[in-house]
Design brief:
- This protein has 369 residues and is of the alpha/beta class.
- It folds into two domains: 53-158 and 298-326 and 355-367, Rossmann fold (3-Layer(aba) Sandwich); 160-295, Rossmann fold (3-Layer(aba) Sandwich).
- It has eleven helices and twelve strands.
- The chain has a six-stranded parallel sheet with strand order 2-1-3-4-5-11, sandwiched between helices.
- Strand 9, helix 9 (277-284) and strand 10 form a beta-alpha-beta unit.
- The chain starts with a helix and ends with a helix.
- Belongs to the bacterial solute-binding protein 2 family.
- Residues 1-21 form the signal peptide.
- InterPro entries: Bact_Solute-Bind_Prot2, Peripla_BP_I, SBP_2_dom.
- Residues 60-317 form the Periplasmic binding protein domain.
Length: 369
């Protein structure tokens, strides 16, 4: 019995020593979750985010609050141009300035299984539920000019305050710091609200420039503005009654300019925001009261929004808010012969062909067959 006990104790002691040795041993990569680089049997997995082939053939929905005017048409052109260069396809959902319809269009885009959704304008109250639903289903979303605050959803916006400041400062300079002006503006749109901030500051800075009338309607904006401006001109019929008109949207500027020109009141100058080919033709016309506008190329806006979406597809990080820098376009800087927005870069520094958000891999994606 004693001999067996001694053998048993010897075996038990040996086993304990082995366990202690195993616990005390440290792997070569302790403190690092990665396998030891010196182990020839271990290889790092390939980085999937370097493979752009998965980005071809994406289906993209563009959900718009409204598609009125040439600015919107050129913006859509920019979206389609960039998506098609990336090998994808765009479907446009126009909502006719009806927020309820826009919310339904967003739901439809989510339910139809698009890979990504671009949103143009709208209001958070109508959009955020649909945006959150899209994100929950793994659909990438990028917003332009809507005050949507959903984590993981980049929002593009023009530097609206800067655009308003550029035009208002020129108005004040041309007017000599005093006069009577008409404001055409409408509440309820994120970019309009940002432009209004600059307008309030302008009023404080130039107390001798008085606002005598303010109006604005986003439904049929050019036609409605023309009709309302015609009424204002009858209310203030004498030369000098109105110094200038400041408009917070190019559709407003079109309507106001047509009314002023038809009434022969071209002593009144019009200052606008945004730019399209149609707008540029009016500004170049020496008989037109519309003399200047601050804007970002609408085609570039569309292209940059698409680039932002494709960065989301690829898993790259975007800033929560992406600000697009405007330029100031005035008649005095333009040639006498007519030019379009494609040619405008020859005369206005910073206009068109923006490289913002354009990554090297995107060039590769455009060239991929």
């Amino acid at each position: 019995m004693k001999k067996q006990s001694k053998v048993y104790l010897t075996v038990l002691l040996a086993a304990m020593l082995l366990v202690l040795a195993a616990c005390g041993a440290k792997p070569a990569n302790e403190g690092n979750n990665k396998p030891a680089a010196t182990d020839p049997a271990v290889t790092e997995p390939a980085a999937n985010n370097n493979d752009i082939s998965a980005l071809k053939g994406k289906k993209v929905a563009l959900v718009m609050q409204f598609n009125t005017g040439t600015f919107s048409s050129q913006y859509v052109e920019g979206v389609k141009d960039q998506v098609e260069k990336f090998g994808g396809k765009v479907t446009v959902f126009a909502s006719d300035n009806d927020l309820g319809k826009m919310a339904s269009n967003l739901d439809a885009a989510v339910n139809q299984g698009f890979d990504g959704i671009l949103i143009d304008h709208g209001q958070a109250s109508a959009l955020e539920a649909g945006v959150k639903n899209a994100i929950a289903k793994g659909i990438s979303v990028v917003v332009f000019d809507a005050d949507v605050k959903v984590e993981g959803v980049p929002v593009l916006q023009q530097d609206d305050k800067k655009m308003a400041e550029l035009t208002l400062e020129q108005l004040a300079k041309d007017a000599g710091g005093k006069g009577s002006i008409v404001k055409v503006w409408v509440a309820g749109f994120a970019p309009m609200e940002r432009r209004q901030v600059a307008y309030k500051e302008f009023q404080s800075k130039y107390p001798e420039i008085k606002e005598i009338v303010a109006f604005g309607n986003a439904n049929n904006p050019a036609i409605d503005t023309q009709a309302q401006m015609e009424a204002v001109l009858k209310q203030y019929p004498n030369k000098g009654d109105i110094t200038a008109v400041w408009t917070a949207w190019d559709e407003f500027a079109k309507g106001a300019s047509r009314a002023i020109q038809q009434a022969g009141r071209t002593e009144i100058k019009v200052y606008g925001i945004d730019m399209s080919d149609e707008d540029l033709q009016m500004i170049q016309d020496p008989a037109s009261p519309w003399v200047a506008s601050a804007a970002v190329d609408p085609k570039d806006i569309g292209r940059i929004q698409v680039r932002t979406l494709y960065k989301e597809f690829k898993g790259e990080e975007n800033e929560p808010v992406i600000v697009l820098n405007p330029v100031y376009v005035q008649r005095d800087a333009l040639p006498t012969e007519k030019v379009n927005t494609t040619q405008l870069a020859q005369y206005i520094e910073g206009w068109g062909s923006s490289e913002q958000g354009y990554e090297d891999w995107m060039k590769e994606l455009e060239g991929a067959k």
